[in-house]
Amino acid sequence: MTNSVETRPSLDHDICVHIFTASAAMVGVCLTVIGIIRAVVSLRRPDVVGDDLLAINAITYLAACLVSYWALRTRNLGRNHRLERCADVLFLGALILTAINATFIAWAVSAH
User: What pLDDT digit, counting tens, does each position of 57-104 carry?
Assistant: First the structure.
């Protein structure tokens, strides 16, 4: 019988790696969408709230990325688990914010 503590670090390590890569990619996606919104909407209105929300979204993904990287680099198992939980919360919060942003952008585009 294997000890669950022995198998847990490898599973958590995998989760942390996925959060790290996905959140780093999502920072790029947010920045790309900000550029597209600026290019398209600048013809209609000088300022849009959607790009501000996406900037906050990119910062949230960046925070998840940095915390997951810190968790990958730490050697303290207790700290590693705390950092992974924090990265999970930040990443899930950023995903929710992405859905809110997508809804807002779809509403703003259809309203004009």
Answer: 999 999 999 999 998 888 888 898 899 999 999 999 999 998 888 888
Q: Which residue did the predictor score with more confidence, 110 or 46?
A: 110
Judge whether 112 and 44 are in contact, CB under 8 Å: yes
To the nearest 10 degrees (0 to 180), the angle between helices 4-41 and 49-73 is 160
pLDDT higher than threshold 80 for residue 50: no
Dihedral, 68, 74, 79, 85 alpha carbons, nearest 10: 10
Q: Is the C-alpha dihedral spanning 97, 103, 106, 109 positive or negative?
A: negative
Distance CA 89, CA 45 (A): 35
Is the alpha carbon torsion for 73, 78, 26, 54 positive or negative? negative
Distance CA 89, CA 92 (A): 5
